[in-house]
Amino acid sequence: MNPMQRKKDRIDALAATAGAAADIPDAGRVSDSGGLSLIGSAWLRLRRDPVFLIGATVTLLFILLAIFAPLLAPHNGHTAYLIKEVSADNPVPGGEKGFPLGADGQTGRDLLSRLILGSRQTLIVGVLATLAGLCGGLVLGTVAGSLGGWADTVVMRVVDVMLSLPSLVLALAVATLFGKPSQWTLIIAIAIVQVPIFARLLRGSMLTQRSSDHVLAARALGVKRSAITFRHMLPNSLGPVLVQATLVLATAIIEAAALSFLGLGNPDDSSPEWGQMLGQAQQYFDIAPRLAFWPAGCIVVVAFGFTLMGESLREALDPRNRR
Amino acid sequence: MTTAAPAKTETLLAVRDLVVEFGGRGRPTFRAVDGVSFDVRPGQTVGLVGESGCGKSVTSLAIMGLLPKRGNKVAGSATYDGTDLLTLDDREMRDHRGRDIAMIFQDPLSSLNPVVSIGVQVAEVLQRHRGMKKSTAIAESRDLLDQVGIPDPARRLKEYPHQLSGGMRQRALIAMALACKPRLLIADEPTTALDVTIQAQILNLLKELVVDSGTALIMITHDLGVVAGLCDEVNVLYGGRIVETASRHEVFARPRHPYTTGLLGSIPRLDGSRSEQLAAIPGSVADNIPWTSGCAFAPRCSRALEVCRSEAPPLEQDPTAMEEHTLRCHNPNPAEGGEPA
Amino acid sequence: MTTEPEVLLDVEGVEVHFPIKRGVFFDKTVGYVYAVDGMTLQIHRGETYGLVGESGCGKSTFGRALLRLEEPTAGSVTFGGVDVSTLKGEALRTTRRHMQMVFQDPLSSLDPRQTVESLLLEGMQAHGLAKDKKAAGARLRELLAAVGLPAAALRKYPHEFSGGQRQRIGIARALSVDPQLIVADEPVSALDVSVQAQVINLLEDVQEKFGLTYLVIAHDLAVVRHISDRVGVMYLGSLVEEADSDDLYATPLHPYTRALMSAVPIPDPLVEDRREQIILAGDLPSPANPPSGCRFHTRCPWRQEERCDTERPQLRVVEIDGVPASHRVACHFAEQIQSGEIQRHEVDPVAIDPSAATDVEAADAEVVPTQTFTVP
């Protein structure tokens, strides 16, 4: 039998079973499961992303450290335990039993404890400065992005002016305004620097949203303007802003360190902060570089953790990677 | 330049059992192309037709060596003039690309460098592949632009991609593709982004090219209308496999695969009857089943049998056809004049 | 059948001119994009009016201007006896209920963060149609059933559907507020071929079921002809021809319509091989700098000296045997072209700089099915 004939016979045999196959609806199948939101599917991807896992672990450890700092620190941060060992030959006592990292300088306080306790101040400054910057940016960005027109022009020019001020000058100005530098002047100065970043970012994505089809659809549907702004435009614009916030947290910590280093931070060093510790370490840099190394290393690791988390978050929230 | 029409039997490009798998980044591997074979002869226009996700573009990118290397697997062979293109390294492939085989894409704007003038971009190809001096290359570029019907080519040479309309950009890309007189041109949805009147201009240009220079053309499109006017041979793809192959007249006169008839039934024809509803194919490609467990089209197919869901049909010659006509179906449409299956 | 059909939508001389602005602090208007430039048409209750034209002709802008999603700079839009073009604030918002829109790209027109349920409820809530929770729930299921989707779709998000299913959701959303008119802007051009037919059939089904009036805007003449009772052909901001669907196909009168029709590929090699194509020279001129006189004269193979360059033709009824009064064309020489008195001639393409028209192109851009990945 030739293959063609065989094929034909087979088709005939098969034709007897025609119609046995199940039909699908015109629109195609819709599974009963599902209902996975964007955040949900982003989380599914993040959970398997090693970059995110590393970043999140570092960040989580840092936050836990900050919360439980008083319990974790072997000593307190202000008692001069090692003051007796400070001498002209040995101005900065090294590590010894009970004090593995040694003293923090001629004051003879425990470096390890101060590092651990310092995480708290650092986190507070970073988080508060970022939050304040985020809030300011959200308000300005929402106003500019949703109202448009003159409001947009005015807000954005103000933002441009803010953007042109260096943080250092701002910190000086704020400190002068409040009389003396403190933790709060530091936070305010950093927050102000962050505001334009958030405002511009939010405005940009709000404008994109405003001309998007789904906002147009909501307008065509007769949805009220406020509902369009807060239900459609804002939630869809927040993604890049939140990503930026994690990245800014890292910058804010570094910025705070830089300002403290220059003496614009909290002058009271009984509650330590990494940037401030770094600033004080400069006088011992020749003889005990570890005093600079430890707080600097902590800052780098934490900033790196936040950055990794932000970058992986950015990737996960990118609609192009959606499945 | 080909002087005489080459013999019919000569094959310029032979693609055999091409398989492309995408994977990596923790995702399950996905077979975009699953055993595609076809031949292209000099001067012939071969159509790869199908909807998004059928593997038609991936096939062409694999032949051109343009798929990202990471995470993807390409198997099979694509023999061009005795060399298997799939075994070439990047440098050797680059030599072939542009000189022997050229490609034009759907979006002409993103295929052009926005900060380099059109003239320099065309001239670069000539300098690179034909070893021309810059001055001669520029002069030749002007002739090329003229050849593809760009008005005022001397002026256009100095302009940048954004200053050209969509149709003109596609012409400029075609000029670049033709710069080295390639023997094979792959056109991936070259008119999809263009308006119909402009599409007609570009299709006309491609038709003339094939006739005048004997260039072989692989036309990748979702538009059966474009195929009907342009292609000598038509390959209909579904779910990464060829489901029907025949000459253009055969495939439109006697479509045997239910997917092919489904496609033909779902497009309103300008010269068709208005009164009846379109015969839509239910579902979407998301409803496909994998070829490993049957015919991918079975869930959407009105002629599906039990066996279609358990056994993938092989690609076989249609026994009722008078000419070459292969199809991959257990229960094809009844042949014209034959007894219904 | 002599009763005049009721006019649902009466559009009179609508213009949308976008200012082209330059400057940082103080925007200076340096010119206008004449996106829609004098559109006059009437749509009867229960019919489907098809508006066809190529990208950049202003058809999408016109559709949006009807719904006041774009502000018309001149003209009037009367919907069911009410002048919509002057409505403001709350009055405009409540009127929107009667005129809905179906968009081209079903994914981008659905808010990715809302479930199908809240997408469908939103319009009903905005118009106080969802006060009774139970009734609203029943209505949602009814809407989904009407577009062929199961109730399980309610708690899913747009990205969990296929393209065709998303467009069905878009149609259900438009239906949710019980409109009379639906403006469908390229409703199928972003969909795969096999899915296009489903959506076209669905649009026809729901029209019958809910007694809707359609304005279908598309670049695909075959789709428009299939779905529409009457067709208007648009070129550079205004109508060049308007006729019953079959009349237009049988006797296209305007040179642009002829060219457009001959350019549409037909999936039949026998037809393709023997038909004569009118290949237009050059590109669509920029709507920021439209040609004088007849907008089409720069590309028209039948152009006559003087009159075509200077005098803008208006839509008019022609006196040609077999052409009904409903068939109107904006061409000075329609009769002479039809009788063969004026023959086609060569046209030199005019170079167009598209950069001046980017504004309107963005508003009118075509979305094409894109590849699922890109080559780096």
If you had to describe this structure to a student in words, what would you say it looks like?
- The complex is a heterotrimer of chains A (323), B (341) and C (376).
- With 323 residues, chain A is mainly α.
- Chain A has a domain at 49-65 and 121-321: MetI-like fold, CATH 1.10.3720.10.
- Chain A has helices spanning 3-15, 38-46, 50-67, 69-72, 111-147, 149-163, 167-177, 183-210, 213-221, 225-261, 274-281, 290-317.
- Chain A is flat.
- The two termini of chain A are 50 Å apart.
- Chain B has helices at 56-64, 90-99, 108-111, 118-130, 134-147, 153-157, 166-178, 196-213, 224-230, 248-253, 258-266, and strands at 13-24, 27-40, 45-49, 73-80, 83-84, 101-104, 184-188, 216-221, 233-238, 241-247, 316-317, 325-327.
- In chain B, the strands form 2 sheets. In chain B, strands 6-7-8-3-9-10-12-11 form an 8-stranded mixed sheet, with helices on both faces. A 4-stranded antiparallel sheet of chain B has the order 2-1-4-5, with helices on one face.
- In chain B, a hairpin with a 7-residue loop joins strand 11 and strand 12.
- Chain C has one domain: P-loop containing nucleotide triphosphate hydrolases (Rossmann fold, 3-Layer(aba) Sandwich).
- Chain C has helices spanning 59-66, 89-95, 116-126, 133-146, 163-176, 193-210, 221-227, 245-250, 255-263, 269-274, 307-310, 334-339, 358-363, and strands at 7-22, 28-44, 48-52, 74-79, 82-83, 99-102, 181-185, 213-218, 230-235, 238-244, 316-317, 328-329.
- In chain C, the strands form 2 sheets. In chain C, strands 6-7-8-3-9-10-12-11 form an 8-stranded mixed sheet, sandwiched between helices. A 4-stranded antiparallel sheet of chain C has the order 2-1-4-5.
- In chain C, helix 4 packs across helix 5 (163-176).
- Chain C starts with 6 loop residues before the first strand and ends in a 13-residue tail after the last helix.
- The chains are: A mainly alpha (323), B alpha/beta (341), C alpha/beta (376).
- Chains in contact: A-B, A-C, B-C.
- The interface between B and C is large, with 67 and 65 residues.
